[in-house]
Each structure stands twice: as C-alpha cells, then as structure tokens.
Amino acid sequence: MRLVIVSNRVTIPDRHEKVMAGGLAVALREALEQRGGLWFGWSGAVSEGAPAPVRQVEHGNVTYAVTDLSEAERQSYYLGFSNRALWPLMHYRLGLTEFQRSDYMGYLGVNRRFARALAGLIKPDDMIWIHDYHLIPLAAELRRRGVTNRIGYFHHIPWPAAEIMGVLPFSATLIRTMAAYDLVGMQTEVDARNLIDGLVSLCGARSDGRRVRLGPRETTVRAFPIGIDVEGFRRLAAASARQATTPLRATRESLGQRKLVIGVDRLDYSKGIVQRLEAFGEFLRDHPEERGRVSLLQIAPPSRSDVPEYADLDRQSDEVAGRLNAQLGEFDWTPIRVVKKAYSRKALAGFYRRAQVGLVTPMRDGMNLVAKEYIAAQDPADPGVLVLSRFAGAAQQMSEALIVNPFDSHEVAEAIRTALAMPKTERIRRFEKLYAIIAATDIDWWTRQYLLALSGEAGAAEALAV
Ligand code: ADQ
C-alpha cells in the first residue's frame, strides 16, 4: 500500500539544506523516505488568486505535492484558529486562547480545499496518514467526497481533558470529525483517554476501551509515543565530539573547564523557557559556590513570530536573561547565553554531548523530542543527566530522568544541583535505562507500530508494543 502523508507544512528537501527545526518535519521525512509515497500540504508560501494550484515535485522515492495559502487563509486557518485557539487551548493555556468565529470558518475552508485537492491525487488502495491539529476535520471532508481509504490521524500535541476542550466554541462539532478516522494516534495514554472522554461526553459517542462508535463509524484511539532516530543521532554526536565543528569548538574554548547546562527549544511559551531561566537564576542564588563553574546555554530559534504572544515571549526571554546576567555575572563569566538561531543536527548533537545537564522543562508538551535527543547524544562512559518536566509526554516513558514540576522554580533549581553533583555510577545507571527505552521505541518502531495498526493489522501492532 502506498503511503500518503498530509501535514500542515511540507518542506521540499534541497540538497544544501543543513538546518531543520521542528519535531514533526524531522520525524516524518525519515518515515516517508524509508517507504516512499506522497506528501501533501501547505508550501509555506502565500499567494493570491484562488484557488492556488497544486505543484508536484519528485524527490527520490517521495512525491511532494504542495499548495500555497492566500494571506486571508494564513491569517485565519494558520495564525488564527490553529495557533491562537487550538495550540494554547491544547497546552492548557486558557488565558492565551483567542477564539474568532471567522478564524474557525477559515480553518474549515482550508481543510475543505485540501480535501478537494487531495481527493484527486489518491489511489484506491492508498493508506492516508494525516498529522496534527491544523487538519483535524480533513478526514471528515475526504469522507464527504466519497474517499473510503483507511485514514489515520496522529496528534503531536497534548489532547486536553474534556472540560478544557469544552471551552472552545463549536468544540463538539470539531471533536465529532475525529470519528471519520479509522485510527487516531496520541502521544500518551492520558491524551487518548481525554479524547475518548470528549467524544463520549461532548458528542454522545459510545466507547468500549480504545474503540469509539459514533454513528455508523468505529474509530480506534491509541497512544503511540513518537521517537527519534536514536542510533543515527548517537553516531552524529560521537562524530561531532571527535571533529569539534566550529560552534562546538568555540563553545569548548569559551567554556574551558566549566560545566554546561543546555536547553534547546523552539521559542514557544509551552516550552517554559522564561521559567527555566528564572529557575537557573534561583539555583545560582541559592548555591553561590556554583557561580563561575557552570553556564546555561539556551538555544531557542524564534517561531511563529507574527503571533503576538510569541513576540512577547521573545522580548521577555531577552529581558530575563539580561537581568540575571547583570545581577549574577562576572567580567569573565556569563551565567546564561541565549542563542536564537537554528543549528545543524550535527552541531546540536555535539552541544548536547558537551552538556552535563539537559534541561527540558516544558509547561506542557505532547512528547518533546529534545529529551530523547539529549540522551541519544551522551557519551555512555560519562553521560550527562536529564532534568525533565512531568508535563512532557516523554516523562511517561523516561522515568529515570530527574522529573520536575516546571511551575516550581525551587524544585527545578534543586534538580539542577542534584544533576551537577550526581556520581558517575548513578549517571550511567540512569542513562542506560533511558537509552534502552528510547532505543526500543525509536522512530522506526513508531512508524511501524502506527502503520501496522492503520493497515488493520492491529493484532500485530499490539504484539510489537513494549
Ligand atoms: P515541537 O514543539 O517542535 O514538536 P520537539 O518535540 O521538542 O518540539 O521537537 C523540536 C525539534 O526541533 C527537535 O528535533 C530539535 O532538535 C529541533 N530544534 C529545536 N531547536 C533547534 C535549533 N536551534 N536548531 C536546530 N534544531 C532545533 C511537536 C510537539 C512535541 C512533539 C513533536 C513530535 O510540540 O511535543 O514531540 O511535535 O511529535
């Protein structure tokens, strides 16, 4: 069966591309290249003159089919409903959730247009795999056009409790469209349960464990925790440590013997970057003996800069880092370095490996691939320690990390101290367990599991579960 992937953004690879931020893009490209197929979605460009045509580009065994959005569509579907309503709501940030009826109409309009374009590209036995919150109603729109193929959906971000989802106007109408899928994949069991509860309590569905019946259709809702290419990333990190690429060598030279704590995130309020900087400041204030001995490197490339809440965060993170550096720094020591740019996978792997502590403290996160990348990049003979938010989906699997509540800056500060002081034997013990779990549930495992379940071989998929 040919695989058709649909996601909001499609980046057609070019030979010179070195830098790629965004967990979704990284994970999917790897999956599709292994199998071949079609990848459909927004080109990332804006053009007027509706409806925008679909352009197709062949690249290896993958066909990329992309369409532009009009500026009005970008505003309503992408910036408005997806990123100012669904994103904050699904990350439990009710105070940041901005609902506009016209944005919702734009969101439905783009999903309808995508369905129309996609229906013409689908072959009878294609298996369709749709990704993420931008495209929730896409399967319902495809079904309306008579598409009977197996259609799956994977939700990369948290799915909140029904009480939270119920805040969204039209939530029942939107959630109901989930029943058009044969399989819905969530990052964690909690997310899966929340969706089932929502379908039952807001839409009147009936459920029997993982299966939900709404009208004539039956949908399976299950957790498939996403993984990374662990072995590939481990090799990159080892090579990066040997070769000392330019940014890495410069970091080494500028740090000297100092220890390094690292944070790597898109600049997004869900990632808890400002809270993390404050917690690091608290750690230095509470433990003055550590001053001058350790620095925090926060790598945070800006994203969604034309959403006002992101521009605020950009300013706020500069202010907090500047204030803490001014209060705590010395002429020859800068406590916090914030670098707002993207790096190659190899440079990133090298940074992780050089860092004694990986600080992954989102306020809420679907999974968080950085937690897994940090572990994959460690030197097994002298590994660093992962400090991980209990509100990242990754915490469900990675219980040997130091698990913290990111809302409690004192707890995070103490975890940094514990991590820096942890004896090597304990570091190795924790690392080995963490590495084993991320290696057993890597990106190959994830795609295999999901596609087995979507193709109807659910029994086989269950047998693979760990
Ligand atoms: P994201 O919110 O983008 O993904 P995450 O899972 O952490 O979050 O993935 C970020 C990716 O971007 C990582 O692979 C990281 O290496 C890369 N990246 C970040 N900063 C970078 C930089 N400066 N230079 C280069 N690369 C950088 C969403 C959900 C997550 C979920 C993923 C996958 O929000 O919860 O884990 O999808 O499902």
TrEMBL record:
Pfam families assigned to the protein according to its UniProt record, in alphabetical order: Glyco_transf_20 (PF00982)
- Family, similarity comment: Belongs to the glycosyltransferase 20 family.
The record ties this protein, via PANTHER family, to: BCDNA.GH08860 (PTHR10788:SF106), TREHALOSE-6-PHOSPHATE SYNTHASE (PTHR10788)
Protein name, please?
Trehalose 6-phosphate synthase
Give the species this sequence originates from: Bosea robiniae
